[in-house]
Specification:
Oligomer: heterodimer
Largest sheet of chain B: 13 strands, antiparallel
Strand content of chain B: 35-45%
Number of domains of chain B: 2
Structural class of chain B: alpha+beta
Strand order of the largest sheet of chain B: 6-5-4-3-2-1-13-12-11-10-9-8-7
Distance between the termini of chain B: 66 Å
Number of strands of chain B: 13
Distance between the termini of chain A: 35 Å
Radius of gyration of chain A: 37 Å
Number of helices of chain B: 5
Helix content of chain A: 55-70%
């Protein structure tokens, strides 16, 4: 048996290079295998990197959510919207049941939502600070850092804010004067605004501040602040979660600025990327971007985007100028005059000159900006320690505003620049629940009572005109005056003080667990157990009537998770096309080869070779051809992957940071694509040779001899 | 076509004459005194007069306070209900809304001062600048639904025909906002009862011409005002049907109105803040 196999192998190797057709077939197999091993290996690496990104940043290994939800869970959103998930109200029971499943490490409750954060313009913000100071001085409560100040300290801060406001008014007055000097711009100046500016620039206006601070503030808020239109609108996507559990489960998470939210307290950590991209002074952010671009070899002189950044920095100096009071303005003018060797006295001109950056002066100007300008202005719209007001439309339909303290910013290691991983901020569960606004039985009963008291009739859109204006409708009625007393209508007072206290309150684990959540991440001890644990969760859920749906990280990440699968399908289609063509060519070539070898095969049959031997001979020849060239393809593919792994493949943009799980993808050679490639080669060669081999077995010695004659 | 319009106008005049005759006989008590029936096609002056009449009827020389019920219905969601008090000082163009029910909404409010609309939440102690398009309390009602009517001041009218609305004959006016004025909807169609000139239906359009909201005013109430020395009219019921989210609708009911004088310092941020302190 062995000697027969050795004989057949020898024949196969001898015939390998005899026909040029074999070389063509070999080249095809080599190319197909190379493509498969190379791209398959890259996709495998990409898939593993993406798994690290998704599992490590938001999803965990498995996600659970209510099976009665309207949508499937899509942690990164689906077509720009968040999934509509049914609230889960029995988390402690669910947690207990799932934690008992073998291989489960931790269950982290979650809920994803988003809100728009609006903040007024620079005057609104200054007036808001001044209003808080005035309130604190009058003993009307407010933030602790203000109420704890002495009267003298509050007076000093009020004075400083007034100086700042007067400087802003001076700048606005200058703008208006310049506009009035120009015929075209003058038409756009509202005389109503001019009159208001004229009034507030006078000393008499400010002399009356102490006598009527709130009246003065209202005039400024209603007549002066609307003149400036630069309001900020930030969309903040957040995950409400048990922050302590989250930090322990998602070990790639790291605090970048500030500190973690103290255990059991309300608070949030803003994504560092969002903090930099959307909350930083725009001029500073553009300078940072230019710096990064220059470090990556781009040049201002030829790069349109960088040229635009420089142009915007030069023209948009107002954000900085309006932040300074008279004293700081004078200081900055002096500092910039010295640094630039200029005699210019207007701050915006000096700033424009400073920000006129070129490839040659950029580093010096960048350092000057951070040394002279940023210490005197508010660099971020939201700072660590600030209390952020988040407004959301609750599930019960009411608008809810919640104050949340920002304890710091965070990022996931390796994903610092990925907007996909970094687009979501973290919020404590209690604040999340307040913003979610689940309609409890008590609240529903209260609403029902209000409806019942009013006795309003429901009218459908379709029948509205007939019902409201049909026969018998009386439109006009005499009314009797009623007594309306707002003081008796409002029963719960001191609400703000109570809610301020919430920021300091420490919640027990039971309080955190007992409440609404939308989904939960299940962390496993071994990631390879995902499929088994999903089945176990479904079984436990059915047995205990928990109404849960469990999905892998890949499904939970929605369309994003399917990207790798799409690439994989594309690869298989491409390889299938290559090998299908190869099969046809191999089949034809082997048919021709068989016909050419009729005499040899006939002779072999005449001297006693059985049909089985002939069949084995032809098949082994093909297999040897496939394995040899396929092997070369595999080796070449693995070699190329190995070479790529030495330096890694740099992420071309921020999106790819997420797929690469960092700035570079390090491809690795795994056995998976190699084994699949080998199976494909064997199948293709055997399948395409089978008919010619069978034909060869049908050749009779008599026919071979006749052919010879 | 000409014959048809002549017949239409004549019928309208006849109907109006009939209604006036009924009024004289005391069989139509809801027709206001001095409200002549609207003839068919209207001149610009006549239309402006009609708009001024709408504004004048609802304007009170002094102060105005009303307790209102607000209900929002949305598909697959629980109804959102609220009670609020509306404070108006028409002489100074001031408006304030103070929510009183349910408990979670108590103390929230809106304040309009000098073309600025502010919203306040006592839970956060923050004032936020809102626009004319602000959905009051998240419903499909707007500031202008609760404020003094300023149709003649803010819009240019155009005649757009006559129509029967249930049992009522109406005349339709198309209003386009005047340049430089900020309103929630730049184009409005009004259907006015030809007999007593009440606004019965209103459709509001975006600048693109898309229909955004249809409103019905099936109840108009009047109350004698000492300061005005005549009746002040107010819509006792307003129903808004969302034309974008077709399944959403909003109901506003005026439960009671009080025309007595309000405190002098009432329309201030400090006053609204004090209600929940």
């Amino acid at each position: 048996m062995i000697s027969r196999t050795v004989l057949l192998l020898r024949i196969a190797f001898r015939n390998l290079m005899v026909s040029p057709i074999n070389l063509l077939i070999g080249a095809l197999i080599l190319f197909g295998t190379l493509v498969f091993v190379l791209l398959g290996g890259l996709l495998d690496s990409l898939s593993r990197s993406m798994e690290r990104s998704v599992v490590g940043s938001l999803a965990g290994h498995i996600q659970i959510y209510s099976a009665a939800s309207k949508d499937d869970l899509a942690l990164y959103g689906q077509f720009g919207n968040d999934s509509d998930l049914k609230a889960i109200t029995e988390f402690p029971k669910i947690q207990e049941a799932i934690s008992k499943i073998d291989g489960v490490q931790m269950v982290v409750p979650m809920g994803v939502s988003g809100a728009l954060i609006t903040s007024g313009n620079i005057i609104d913000l200054t007036l808001e600070r001044l209003r808080d100071l005035v309130r604190a001085r009058a003993g009307q409560g407010g933030r602790e850092e203000l109420t704890s100040l002495s009267k003298e300290e509050l007076d000093a801060q009020i004075h400083a804010e007034i100086l700042h406001l007067r400087q802003i008014i001076k700048v606005l007055r200058g703008d208006a004067d310049r506009a009035m000097a120009d015929m075209l711009s003058a038409r756009a100046v509202d005389p109503h605004n001019l009159e208001a500016l004229h009034r507030v620039e006078k000393d008499e206006f400010w002399d009356g501040f102490e006598a009527d601070p709130l009246g003065t503030l209202e005039f400024l808020e209603n007549r002066i602040a609307p003149i400036v239109t630069d309001t900020t609108l930030i969309f903040l996507r957040y995950v409400g979660t048990d922050l302590d559990k989250f930090q322990h489960s998602f070990d790639r998470m790291k605090v970048m600025k500030g500190q973690a939210v103290p255990a059991g307290q309300r608070g949030m950590l803003i994504s560092d990327l969002i903090h930099e991209e959307q909350m930083k002074l725009k001029t500073a952010r553009r300078l940072d971007k230019i710096k990064d671009a220059l470090a990556n070899g781009r040049v201002i002189a030829t790069d349109d985007e960088l040229k635009r950044f420089v142009k915007e920095n030069r023209s948009q100096t107002r954000d900085i100028v309006l932040q300074l009071d008279a004293l700081k303005t004078a200081e900055m003018v002096k500092a910039l005059q010295d640094a630039l060797g200029s005699k210019e006295t207007e701050l915006d001109h000096l700033l424009s000159a400073l920000l006129d950056t070129t490839d040659e002066n950029f580093q010096k100007r960048y350092d000057l900006f951070y040394a002279l300008v940023t210490p005197r202005v508010r660099l971020y719209r939201v700072n660590v320690g600030d209390v952020l007001t988040i407004k959301a439309f609750t599930r019960s339909g009411y608008v809810r505003n919640v104050n949340v303290k920002v304890y710091g910013t965070f990022a996931f290691s390796g994903l610092e620049k990925s907007m996909l991983a970094g687009s979501t901020s973290l919020m404590d569960l209690m604040s999340f629940r307040d913003l979610y606004g689940y309609l409890t039985a008590d609240k529903a009963e209260e609403l029902k009572e209000i409806q019942k008291d009013t006795g309003a009739k429901t009218v459908s859109r379709e029948n509205a005109e007939a019902e409201l204006f049909g026969e018998g409708a009386e439109v006009v009625a005499e009314a009797t005056p009623g007594i309306i007393d707002p003081d008796t209508a409002i029963t719960s007072t001191g609400r703000r003080l109570r809610e301020d206290d919430l920021i300091k309150r420490v919640y027990s684990q039971k309080e955190l667990d007992d409440g609404v959540m939308l989904n939960a991440a299940v962390m496993l001890k071994d990631a390879r157990q995902i499929d088994r644990v999903i089945k176990e969760i479904q079984r436990v859920s059915d047995e205990q009537n928990l109404g849960l749906k469990a999905v892998s990280w890949q499904k939970a990440s929605g369309l994003l998770g399917q990207i790798i699968n799409v690439f994989r399908v594309l690869l298989f289609v491409a390889v299938a096309i290559i090998f299908f063509i190869a099969m046809i060519i191999i089949n034809n070539a082997m048919m021709m080869a068989t016909i050419q070898r009729t005499q040899v095969i006939g002779t072999m049959r005449a001297i006693g070779a059985q049909r089985g031997l002939i069949l084995a001979m032809v098949l082994i020849e093909s297999v040897v051809l496939g394995v040899l060239f396929g092997g070369i393809g595999m080796l070449t593919g693995s070699g190329v992957l190995g070479a790529m792994a030495m330096k890694g493949i740099a992420a071309p943009n921020d999106v790819m940071y997420f797929f690469f799980s960092g700035p570079r993808l390090i491809p690795t050679v795994t056995t998976g694509p190699l084994v699949i490639a080998l199976v494909i080669i064997l199948f293709v060669t055997v399948a395409s040779t089978f008919i010619p081999a069978w034909m060869a077995t049908r050749i009779s010695p008599l026919r071979a001899m006749q052919a010879d004659e | 076509m000409r014959i048809l319009s002549t017949v239409l106008v004549s019928s309208l005049v006849l109907l109006s004459s009939f209604a006036v005759a009924q009024e004289k006989e005391g069989q139509k008590p809801d027709a206001p005194k001095g409200a002549p029936p609207i003839p068919g096609a209207l001149s610009k002056d006549e239309m402006l007069k009609l708009l001024q009449e709408q504004d004048d009827r609802q304007r009170n020389g002094g102060d105005y306070k009303a307790l209102a019920y607000l209900e929002q219905k949305e598909k697959d969601k629980a109804d959102v209900v609220r009670e609020l008090i509306i404070f108006r000082r028409d002489a100074d163009d001031k408006l304030m809304l103070l929510f009183t029910k349910p408990k979670s909404e108590e103390g929230k409010g809106y304040l309009r001062l000098d073309k600025n609309l502010w919203s306040y939440d006592p839970g956060t102690g923050k004032w936020e600048r809102a626009t004319e398009r602000e959905r009051i309390g998240g419903t499909n009602s707007r500031r202008s639904d609760f404020d003094e009517s300023r149709l003649a001041e803010e819009f240019e009218p155009k005649f757009c025909g006559t129509e029967k609305l249930g049992k009522f004959e109406t005349v339709c006016l198309e209003l386009t906002v005047k340049p430089g004025i900020d309103v929630a909807y730049p184009v409005i169609k009004l259907w006015l009862d030809t007999v007593n000139h009440n606004q019965l239906k209103r459709q509001e359009f975006a600048l693109s011409g898309r229909l955004m909201r249809t409103a019905y005013y099936p109840k108009w109430q009047k109350l004698f005002s000492e300061s005005k020395k005549s009746d002040v009219w107010f819509p006792g019921e307003m129903r808004f049907f969302d034309e974008v989210e077709k399944s959403n609708s909003t109901l506003v009911l005026m439960k009671s109105v009080d025309l007595s004088n309000l405190e002098n310092n009432m329309f201030t941020k400090a006053w609204l803040e004090s209600k929940s302190r």
